[in-house]
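To fix ideas, we now present one chain and its tokenised fold:
***
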Amino acid sequence: MLMDPIELSILLERLEFSQKQSSRLLGRITVGSSVTIKNRVTREKLTVTLVPPELAEPEEQMISFISPLGSALLGLKLGDVAVTEFGRRTDKWDVISVNQRKVITDI
């Protein structure tokens, strides 16, 4: 996955912020969070868990924090809006639930 250097910088900044203890206390979406979102247009609800890339299993709703949706969610909180872009399509997702969990990795 290639990223624009500015987008990569923003993602790394959001990742660093999301891993701070104060971020967890503020209910921010971090790696390990289970998040329910609702599409503003279709009203479709989706629950995903943000994980490190090596643990991603999209068919199990475990998405990498570097995926387009994962990076859009990282650092947000309940009530925020995630914006995803796929080609010419832009979707807006309302964050309707955030449950924080600890992800265990061998890294």
Helices lie at 5-18, 21-25, 68-73. The chain has three helices and five strands. The radius of gyration is 13 Å.
